[in-house]
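User: tokens in, sequence out, please.
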């Protein structure tokens, strides 16, 4: 796939840049005996490793679906992000330990002008490289790339501080090495935490982006015969594969033939435009005359409950004498069942010839 090839290209570029930086910094750090510069190199090394894992993850996740994994391998990218986070975490902890030792047993660094020049050049390389990777990551919708780009930008700030510390040490002979090392370590730990947090969230499943759900809803509503769109859910199988479902409401006299035509067209167009595989369920609607009054009454009752955010799917089955509709509560409501039975009672009192079938829907999307 084009996207995967581009991600891999950016990542390979990242590995090369980082390894060059690691070599220069490690050599300089060892020569001038600067723990800050050495840790900076360690930090860059963990970035290079991250890029290698990004590539492996992208390669594996683009594997074709098979019988055992019919949803494809897209979610492997989440695992590769977790592995990156763990590597960064270990690098951070090791750096922290080394820096604290350096504070307790300080060894003066011995900077030279040439070492400072190399450090400052590395700062700029890292900064512009980070911005490039982040932009590409946003363009390609790759969480790993955005993460490593962001990481590189914050690293360039850290490298800048090693430069500043070196200048201070040369002019005033004050060594900030150990303290700076602690700060660098904390930054490394922070980026590990952030990658982990985001990835774990994706694995648990987060609320769909309201921009996407808004666009989908709007698009589906444009089709003739569609009176409403409800219960839109999106499932991610990796960053590039989304399976979705929605209910659409149509007039109850709409024929199977017409429904077939509408839903086929919608699913086809949604896939073409958004790359989303959509399954559509049908709600029939009849809210004329007396039925409309009942529906109004339901909405009136619902106003008393501040945690009800939507009522939809209203339908009167005259043959079975059953009225059904769905209620969505926001997640704060703890007493859904109690409220449902209260509403049920009020409706029965007012319309004794009907029974009421109230379904609780989950507030999946905006
Ligand atoms: Zn529903």
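Assistant: Sequence out:
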């Amino acid at each position: 796939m084009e996207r995967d090839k581009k991600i891999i290209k950016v990542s390979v570029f990242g590995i090369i840049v980082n390894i060059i930086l690691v070599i220069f910094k490690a050599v300089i750090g060892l020569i001038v005996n600067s723990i800050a510069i050495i840790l900076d190199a360690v930090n860059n090394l963990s970035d290079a490793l991250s890029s290698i894992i990004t590539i492996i993850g992208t390669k594996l996740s683009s594997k074709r679906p098979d019988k055992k994994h019919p949803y494809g391998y897209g979610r492997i990218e989440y695992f590769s992000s977790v592995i990156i986070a763990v590597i960064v975490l270990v690098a951070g902890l090791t750096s922290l330990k080394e820096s604290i030792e350096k504070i307790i047993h300080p060894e003066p660094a011995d900077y030279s002008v040439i070492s400072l020049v190399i450090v400052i050049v590395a700062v700029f390389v890292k900064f512009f490289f980070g911005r490039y990777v982040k932009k590409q990551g946003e363009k390609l919708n790759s969480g790993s790339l955005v993460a490593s780009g962001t990481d590189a930008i914050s690293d360039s700030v850290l490298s800048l501080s090693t430069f500043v510390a070196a200048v201070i040490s040369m002019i005033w002979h004050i060594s900030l090495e150990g303290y700076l090392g602690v700060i660098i370590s904390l930054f490394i730990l922070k980026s590990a935490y952030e990658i982990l947090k985001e990835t774990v969230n994706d694995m648990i499943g987060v609320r769909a982006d309201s921009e996407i759900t808004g666009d989908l809803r709007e698009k589906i509503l444009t089709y003739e015969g569609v009176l409403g769109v409800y219960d839109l859910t999106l499932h991610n199988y990796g960053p590039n594969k989304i399976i979705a479902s929605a209910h659409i409401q149509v007039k109850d006299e709409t024929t199977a033939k017409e429904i077939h035509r509408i839903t086929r067209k919608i699913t086809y167009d949604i896939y073409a435009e958004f790359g989303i595989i959509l399954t559509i369920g049908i709600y029939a609607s009849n809210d004329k005359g007396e039925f409309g009054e009942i529906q109004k009454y339901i909405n009136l009752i619902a106003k008393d409950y501040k945690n009800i955010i939507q009522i939809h799917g209203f339908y009167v089955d005259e043959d079975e004498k059953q009225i059904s509709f769905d209620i969505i509560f926001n997640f704060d409501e703890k007493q859904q069942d109690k409220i449902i039975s209260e509403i049920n009672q009020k409706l029965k009192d007012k319309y004794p010839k009907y029974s009421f079938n109230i379904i609780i829907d989950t507030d999946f999307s905006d």
